[in-house]
Write a structure and sequence with these properties.
With 218 residues, the protein is α+β, with helices and mostly antiparallel strands. It has 2 domains: 6-58 and 134-213, Outer membrane lipoprotein wza fold like (Roll), CATH 3.10.560.10; 68-132, wza like fold (2-Layer Sandwich), CATH 3.30.1950. The chain contains 5 helices and 10 strands, in the order αααββββαβββαβββ. The protein has helices spanning 6-21, 26-46, 52-55, 106-116, 157-163; strands at 68-73, 81-84, 90-93, 97-100, 126-132, 134-141, 147-152, 176-182, 185-191, 209-213. A 5-stranded mixed sheet has the order 7-6-10-8-9, with helices on one face. A 3-stranded antiparallel sheet has the order 2-1-5, with helices on one face. The radius of gyration is 22 Å and the shape is elongated. The two termini are 35 Å apart.
C-alpha cells in the first residue's frame, strides 16, 4: 500500500462492507465478514497494538459439573486417574471418598487434595490439571444459527457468536447483550464488538450464559 496506514484504509473497507451487505447472499455475507475480521486484526497488529492482553486465557477457570480433571500422584501412580465432576459438583476418590470440586479453581482443588491425602500417603504430592471443560451457551437474536451450543473453555463472546454463524443480514455486533445467573439472579451486560480496530479485552463465556445479537436500526 506504499506507506498507507491502517487508519487510512479502515473507512473505505467499512464503506465496501456496507455496500456488500445489500448485494450478496447470506452465505456470502458470512464469508466476507470472516475475511474482513481477519483483515482488521492483521491490520491492527501491524500498527504495533499489543494483542497479548486480548489473547490471554483466564488464569482461574472455575471448575463445574461435566469438567474432566486429571489427578497425578507422584508417590502413588496407581492412584492416577481422570474423572468427570458429577452434577452435584463432587468427585469420588480412593482413600478419601467424596470431595467437593465444583466452584473451585484447579489450584484450590489441588491444595485441598494435598491436605486430604496427608494422612493417607507419606508423600502427598498431587497434581491436578483440567483435561476437558465443556460449557453450554445459548446464542439468540439476529444470527444465522441461533440455539444452544457447546464449547471447549475458554471461549469468548465473539467466538460464540461466530460459532452460531455470525450476525445475520440484519444483525449487528453493536449492543451485544450477555445474560448470566449470578447468585440466583440474572445479570446482564451490553458490549460493543463491531469495531475491531479498538483494543478491547475479550469477555469469556461461562456455562449457561445467554447471548443476544440485536438487529440493526433502520
Amino acid at each position: 500500500m506504499n506507506g498507507s496506514t491502517c487508519s487510512e484504509v479502515t473507512q473505505p473497507r467499512r464503506v465496501f462492507f456496507l455496500k456488500l451487505r445489500g448485494l450478496i447472499s447470506l452465505a456470502g455475507f458470512v464469508s466476507i465478514l470472516t475475511l474482513l475480521i481477519f483483515a482488521e486484526v492483521g491490520c491492527q497488529t501491524e500498527t504495533g497494538g499489543s494483542l497479548s492482553a486480548q489473547a490471554e486465557v483466564p488464569k482461574h477457570v472455575i471448575l463445574a459439573s461435566g469438567d474432566v480433571v486429571k489427578l497425578a500422584f507422584s508417590s502413588a501412580p496407581e492412584l492416577n486417574q481422570s474423572q468427570k465432576i458429577r452434577t452435584d459438583g463432587k468427585l469420588s476418590l480412593p482413600l478419601v471418598g467424596e470431595v467437593d470440586a465444583g466452584g473451585k479453581t484447579v489450584g484450590q482443588l489441588q491444595a485441598d487434595l494435598i491436605q486430604l491425602y496427608k494422612s493417607q500417603l507419606k508423600t502427598p504430592e498431587v497434581t491436578v490439571s483440567l483435561e476437558s471443560s465443556v460449557t453450554s451457551v445459548t446464542v439468540s437474536g439476529a444470527v444465522h444459527k441461533p440455539g444452544k451450543l457447546a464449547f471447549e473453555r475458554p471461549t469468548t463472546v465473539l467466538q460464540a457468536i461466530m460459532e452460531a454463524g455470525g450476525p445475520s443480514e440484519f444483525g449487528t455486533l453493536k449492543r451485544i447483550r450477555l445474560m448470566r445467573v449470578v447468585n440466583g439472579v440474572y445479570k446482564s451486560q451490553v458490549m460493543d464488538l463491531h469495531d475491531l480496530s479498538k483494543e478491547v479485552k475479550p469477555f469469556y463465556v461461562r456455562d449457561n450464559d445467554m447471548i443476544y445479537v440485536p438487529q440493526t436500526a433502520f
